[in-house]
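ok trying this again, last paste got cut off
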Amino acid sequence: MPQPDSRVRGTAKSPPTNTSSASTAPTGPGGQAVREALGDDAYDQLRAQAARDGAMALLAELTLYTALEADRLYGRLRLQAAQARDHLTDALDDRRTAGFLPASGVLGTCGHSADMLAARTTQQLNQLALVLDTYQAASRPTT
């Protein structure tokens, strides 16, 4: 199934890795949410389900991609937060005088970027919760 580009510029989706060990599953908040909802071997189950045909396979694939995107965004957020921390550390350096602080602000665009990534990460984690709820409801045996 060809993967469409994400609507957010520069965030094209990449396919999930083909590892079969739960210990190599993503460890970010997306991976944690999947493990909490589906159990420790959740990635193995989702990959096996995604390899099949049918609606459940598509739903399993959507779940994998949504979790991976949440983890990717979280990683970018951590990098952006580290950059903001570095800017603040430089600004608070005792060896600098107040006259050398940038007039445009201490964080520059770094603060805004971190805010945008935090909002996007939260949005993706909310989307993952909805996808997980849907996957769980669809995979329950009907009686």
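PB: full thing came through this time. The radius of gyration is 20 Å.
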